[in-house]
Amino acid sequence: MPKRNLFVLLLMIVTAVVAWLARDRAGHGRRFAEVLGAIDRAYLEPVDQQSLFDAAMEGVFSRLDEHSAFVVGDHRDQLESLLDQEFGGVGVELTRTEAHRGITVVSPVLGSPAWHAGIAAGDRILAIDGISTLQMPLEEAFRRLRGRPGASVLLTVASQRAASAADEAVDGPARDIALVREVVKTESVLGDRRRQDGSWEWMIEGEPAAAIVRVTSFGERTADELRRAVEAITSRMADAKNQAEQQPDREQQGEAKQHDSSGMLILDLRGNAGGLLSAAVEVCDVFLDDGVIVSTKGRAVEGRGVGDDGAAGDDVAALDVRRATRGAALGDVPMAVLVDGLTASAAEVVAACLQDHGRAIVVGNRSFGKGTVQSIMQLSDNSGLLKLTTSEYLRPSRMNIHRRSNDDESDADWGVSPDRGCELTPTGRQIEALQAWRRMRDVVPPKGGMAGPAPAESQASQPRRIDPVLAKAVDAIRDRD
Predict the structure, then answer these.
(1) CA 336 – CA 340 distance, rounded (Å)
(2) Is 70 inside a domain boundary?
(3) Structural domain tally of the chain?
């Protein structure tokens, strides 16, 4: 071997050794390997090394905050599916009810293999690949239905039908349906109700000048979904305004106007546990022309921090400021953001941003108060993910969002609180009724217009009669005009 090549090889070896020693200066990694080795050699019974490692990770992360975790297996798949807004499967939303033992389809996903096969809301999944679902947990059912795109799965399905004049639903004859799994894309931006073609109606029933956008999570496609919704709403509001200008004034003809002709937008973030910070920033940018959206404050790094005045200093937490760009949508349309105690993380970023800039009023009850950022890091061997808290959010006003362990309800500087006069906490019964009613309106119509289960009687009710928080938001916007 030429001396030059030998020298380079030796230099690389020395560099690698130095890097390894610097990486494990405290020797914890070496001691951990030594403990595992001793257990493997001398413990009374053989112990699976992976189970020991997993237990060690549980112990490590138990010393951190509740949002940091070592994510493997099904939990990893669920996290990645939530953030990517897609998964390999057949595309059905399932539930288990006491009235119908077993597993029932809440709704197929529009355009999914299940939808194309004619599976509809109310159908019962009796078996998956010949295995009965009678006592099967929902998590296991989802695990069996999901899988590699291109792989097949056999479902035994029974559709509901009316048994008598009393409209009691019973199972029809069972049929086997062979499905091929595909990449199923999920929605995170929803409207008021489904149309017959499965698309969303954005204008609120009974409030033709008001639109509602419900954001259920913040994933890879949330911002694009929102932009398409805003385009459709902008077009509808423009058409409504033109029609109003062309019609004679009904009040002058002795007819009372039933609705305010001015438009408004309701952004519903109730129950939204968050997601990607980047998606939340993009959502805010849709509605703002300029200004700070959110700041994230990370760990103090000696000599590398940047203070509030922008000057570098020692041991100052690094501050990353995200700002809006020009081109706000619906700039002249008043907005309200709906929040509740389950509105958290990225959803709180959006609510706080729009509130601080005066772009929207906030209606409902105080949000959860989860103002920390978790970075997702993949292990080098792809065996798991680290979900590690690396920074915290600050509102545009630089106020804190995160609720710390010693904070209580009397502390004012965490979460997002409704505007004055816009506080409303629904009762548990009201929340249950709203959720059941919303599920009925969100059902994807069967392919080909086949008859599905009879809708609940309350489905015909207008949203503001079922949803007191929505009603308060509509009234609050009108009172401020």
Answers:
(1) 13
(2) no
(3) 2
pLDDT at site 456: 45
Give the residue from 185, 201, 227 where a domain finishes.
185
Which DSSP letter does residue 82 get?
H
**Domain identity same for 363 and 415:** yes
Answer whether residue 249 is part of any domain: no
Domain span at residue 208? 189-244+260-480
Closest of 278, 283, 274, 279 to residue 371, by C-alpha: 274
φ, ψ of residue 225 in degrees (nearest 5): -60, -40
Unique residue bearing structure tokens 């920074």 = 391
What's the full length of the chain, in residues?
481
pLDDT tens sequence across 442-475: 999 987 764 444 444 444 578 989 999 999 999 9
Instruction: Judge if 429 and 445 occupy the same domain.
Output: yes
Q: How far is CA 101 from CA 53, 95, 115, in A?
A: 39, 10, 23
The H or E element spanning position 189 is strand 189-190
| 332 and 202 housed in the same domain | yes
- Give whole-number Cα distances, 216 to 110, 120, 213, 232, 361, in Å: 17, 22, 10, 19, 19
191/203 Cα distance (integer angstroms): 8
Residues linked to residue 124 through DSSP beta bridges, in sequence order: 104, 158
The pLDDT of residue 58: 85
The pLDDT-based confidence of 32 (bands split at 50, 70, 90) is confident
Per-residue pLDDT, averaged over 178-196, amounts to 94
Query: Considering only CA atoms, which of 429, 417, 443, 434 is closest in space to residue 469?
Result: 434
Residues 428 and 457 in one domain: yes
Q: Name the residue among 360, 277, 387 with its Cα closest to residue 321.
A: 277
| d(C-alpha 288, C-alpha 145), whole Å | 41
User: What are the DSSP calls for 212-231, one per residue?
Assistant: EEEE--B-TTHHHHHHHHHH
Regarding beta strands 200-201 and 169-180, do their DSSP bridges make them parallel or antiparallel, or are they unpaired?
Answer: unpaired
- 436: in domain: yes
Same domain, 372 and 446: yes
Please name the residues in contact with 29: beta carbons below 8 A apart, sequence gap of 6 or more.
Answer: 23
Of all helices (H) and strands (E), which one includes residue 209? strand 207-215
Amino acid at 156: T
Tell me if 364 sits within 8 A of 340, measured CB to CB.
yes
- CA 109 vs. chain centroid, Å, equals 16
Using alpha carbons, select from 163, 170, 174, 220 the residue that is nearest to residue 376: 220
Q: Is residue 477 within 8 Å of 422, Cβ to Cβ? A: no
How far is 173 from 195, CA to CA, in rounded Å? 29
Please list the residues that pair with 70 across neighbouring strands.
386
**Who wins on pLDDT, 195 or 384?**
195
**Residue 262 token pair:** 């001015």
Question: Are 471 and 342 contained in the same domain?
Answer: yes
